[in-house]
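Notes, Module 5: Reading structure tokens.

Key idea: the token line is not a picture. It is a compressed description, and you learn to read it the same way you learned to read a sequence, by spotting repeated patterns. We will look at two proteins. The first is printed below with its tokens.
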Amino acid sequence: MKYYLIVGEASGDLHASNLMKAIKAVDQEAEFRFFGGDLMSAVGGERVKHYRDTAFMGFVPVLLHLRSIFSNMRMCKKDVIAWNPDVLILVDYPGFNLSIAEYIHKNTDIPVYYYISPKIWAWKEYRIKNIKRDVDELFSILPFEIEFFEKKHDYRINYVGNPCVDAVDSFRKNAPEGRDSFIKRNNIPDKPIVALLAGSRKQEITANLPMMIEAMKEYPGYQPVIAGAPGIDRDFYKPYLGEGACIVFGETYNILNNAHAALVTSGTATLETGIFRVPQVVCYATPMARLYSWLKKHFLKVKFVSLVNLIAGKEVVRELVAADMCLENVKTEIGKLLPAASKERAAMLDEYDRMLEILGEAGASERAADKIVALLKEKGV
């Protein structure tokens, strides 16, 4: 069968690539065409456009690139119809993907499946109308979404488990190198590592990384290691590298596997850090921080921004967002987690274990692939 996938960021590239591998295991004649990244290209098929050419975050960047965004949307819609896949699989990235879903549903008979459902429970809940109308099957990776979609909105979904568990489990099974080898190969000083995961987009990195690095100067006995974002040149990071921090590209899991603690920009990375059982502080600076904090208080539907806290249903990791994201707070919160015997560190590790029980076992990609192929066969594809 023919599968067309659309991804808009690095985490989607990772999870879509694992889904593609799992689909190939149950459909040996699977053909892929996609908007995606390098990991998807490594699985096979034809990449139409790289996600870094389509992803823009924040009001101003989106406004400045409207012409490019609309051009990409038009091209994507035409390309899907021209290739005429057996199914269109959308992966997160709702601003772009829900527009594609509406067009394809209205103009074709191509089934529209959504893997990693839009987080409308946090923001823009009105989008449930579009999902009910335009999406044939929704595949959820967060357990609390079952109640939101099925009980609150009477929309049946398929919970398949979380692919981050799969990705970390696969990494560990492949016998990752030890700490001594890792730091020697990357020329990292022999100190306990604090991972700096400042986001996958330039705007996020510019907003968060300088404060992360500045905060770590308070703790010279620890070595900050930046996880270089895919698709962003080393030159972009140069202004930050003369201040004691190292950078490693393409090895985020290796960094986390060898990290003592972490400063993490909110997103999938917070969950991955939790699965690796690395104590963390969530750091998310925003423009107009006070306005954002007011909007969060009055309009966001959830208490937390990090997936760890949302899954646990309580504050497990400290979130420094918008007005709370300041140098003194970062210093204070990471300082609580650095001592090996600190009560804050021990409590966080215990809560990580509880979160992993809630998520369930590895195998989300395989369960999603089995269900996708089975549903298509039921429809006579």
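Here is the second protein, with the sequence above and the tokens below, as before.
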Amino acid sequence: MSTDEEKGVHSRGEEFLQVFKKGAEFTQDLLKENERLRYRLLQLEESLHSAAQTTHTGGDSEKRLLLRIAELEREKDEILNRIKQVEEENKDFATRYVDIENENNNLANLYIASYQLHSTLDFKEVLQIITEILINLIGGEEFAIMLLDEKINELTAVATEGLTREEIPSVKYGSGIIGKVASTGENYFIDDLTSYKRNFAHPIVCIPLKIKEHVIGVIVIYKLLMQKTQFAEVDYELFTLLAGHAATAIFSSKLYSESERKLSTIQGFIELLTK
């Protein structure tokens, strides 16, 4: 990894740390506000207790004390309501903080994984790295990477997990869910994961591998390691980011392999001619 790339990784890491710090600071502010309100509530209760005792003993200022008690009661109710709101905000923030932390961890892992993808120009190695990312980061158990053969306009599996390549049928460009994803370049997700039964023509996820608007293949997923009822926003983002990086790495490695083969062929001809 070059110095510039290392600086980029370090910079992105700092950005993630800042997000966590802001979240922690916000949590501390909420806790302090909660503590301040509780302390104020105790003060009010003591004031009410003192005022009540004074009222029972009589005195010239009894009417004013009764008014003060009513005022303190109203303030107490307001503070109790505010405490309830703060507690709800604490719960809501705790949930959102966990979600954000998980999302940032996944994005950070994907960001690091993208460097692994672009660290090699070996086609088989690139496919293996993509497979590992789909297993470890996405949680895929059964899936395939399919590439488009533009000569025959057909998608065929070049790598699989949990399935054999022979099990995955080839798909005509533009035909069915998989073919349409390849032709339109738009992601496909099923709505209900609970009742899904494996169907090679109908995956739970189909993501186009595209460079700008040019689709070179698709990732199809038929089963996830973790049981989900539906996809979250972070899943859509991870799939899209992964597909973009995977497409570039696959395209680059294929170009390199083809150029290496052509170079080897040319060198062979030159050797024959010189002999």
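Summary for the second protein:
- The first helix runs from residue 3 to 56.
- The chain has a mean pLDDT of 78.
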